Amino acid sequence: MFRKILSVGGWTLVSRLTGFIRDVVLAAVMGIGPVADAFFVAFRIPNHFRAIFGEGAFNNAFLPAYAQVLETGGEQPARSFASRITTLMLIVQIALLVVAFMGMPWVVRLLAPGFSDEPAKFELAVTLTRITFPYLLFITVVTIYSAILNAHDRFWAAAAAPILLNVAMIAGLALVFLFPNAGYAVAWGVTVSGALQLAMVWWDARRIGAAPGLERPRIDAPMKRFFKALGPAVIGSAGVQLAIFADTIIASFLPTGSVSSLYYADRLYQLPLGVIGIAAGTVLLPEMSRRIAAGDEAGAYAAQNRTVGLTLALAAPFLVAFMVMPELIMSALFQRGAFDAAAAERAGAVLAAYGLGLPAAVLIRSAVSSFYARSDTATPLIASLTAVGVNVVVKILLMRTYGVVGLALGTAIGVWVNLGLLFVLAYRRGWTAPNRTLGRTCLAIAAASLLLGVFAWFAPAPLARWTALLPAWRNEILLALLGAAGALIYGGVLLAGLKGMGVRLARR
């Protein structure tokens, strides 16, 4: 299972690295001005709907149902089930696309009401969102194919597909001279990437004979199970997206550049979340689903504990970096062109606030597997909506004092509430069973993180005196040196701690 997690994480890492290059180009070309704010709203809107109707709710309802049909009935019934679901999703997405095109000014006014005070920015956001919205249709079908591939233990195509989004957006920016401004160029890149991603996962599914077609929907037992799980999952995903909507809505009232600062900080925050947390959850859900369907509860718990330990071990260095040196990270990665020192300072403060919630955020996908593997989507819904309520209230309370940083703090508090509720509810039902090995692993991770934090706090000053003598790339080299040395310190202390506590790094 670790190999699968590392495979998904490896491709996701490539995706995040190309995404970083994309964001560096975006920052240099657009900075944090009105065009950037308009584009990021246009980019977020279809992604919000995708998370509600696509990979968030759909995957959690579809994958266990598909895996059960595949396990009990074989490939032909599973392909028929997937074909009927694909047909239904296409009908829904086409209808949503038509409605959205007609009502796009109201959609933008609802999600970014502060833009109404700046007509030029509002009109640009409406136009760019009409360009990016078809991306939702493509990526919803991509989600179906990705879930099918995951159920067949094929992970690389689904994990690698987002790389095409980054490549297409960079290509759009390279052709910016053909468009009215950079916002138009990158918006078209988003939509083109949806078609490219669909082609990739369709090709891989077709290779193994699992690609669904179009089939007239009919209701049978697997379809009933799917819809029973889908309803709460949609509401739960919608609840999470409401919290993110709140960021966009509130930030639209804050000074120009607030939406962009949230975006750049969130991109770095999403790096460990995507590479580690989502990769672990992607592999763990089908693993637990299969084991529970086979009656192997102990095996499911063991898989979950190993995944949690690995997730925390990989995420801890990011937590230390985000909390101790966020401004250096932003300066080294983005401060060039239109992205100046003031923008780096503001985005760095947002990144530190996001970092407070990173441990909980990377563990949520592993925690919800306890419920989704048993086709229980209602309990995560309750936990999610409760956390969303806390999240939004905290944002409103903090925004007046802390501005855009208060929005990130609200997000951090909300994810901790969500994780806490999921763990308590799963533990009370006997659906999760942390063991001593996991506890010893956490102690070793804490010790290694503490020493890494001490190094990250004291080492930058003397190293900066040396890098200040360099003619260029001072912050970039300083960050690279700190990263390399920190990785050696953390890795060495962690391995020594695990060995000292008797934790085996490999299973027999």
TrEMBL record:
Keywords carried by this UniProt record: Cell inner membrane, Cell membrane, Cell shape, Cell wall biogenesis/degradation, Membrane, Peptidoglycan synthesis, Transmembrane, Transmembrane helix, Transport
One Pfam family matching this protein: MurJ
Pathway it works in: Cell wall biogenesis; peptidoglycan biosynthesis
Subcellular location field: Cell inner membrane; Cell membrane
Membrane-protein topology: Multi-pass membrane protein
Transmembrane segments: 20-43, 88-108, 128-148, 155-179, 185-205, 226-255, 267-286, 307-329, 349-368, 380-398, 404-426, 438-458, 478-498
Domain of life: Bacteria
Keyword ATP-binding attached: no
The keyword Chaperone belongs to this UniProt entry's keyword annotation: no
Similarity field: Belongs to the MurJ/MviN family.
HAMAP family tied to this protein: MurJ_MviN
Role noted for this protein: Involved in peptidoglycan biosynthesis. Transports lipid-linked peptidoglycan precursors from the inner to the outer leaflet of the cytoplasmic membrane.
Protein name: Probable lipid II flippase MurJ
Organism for this UniProt entry: Microvirga terrae
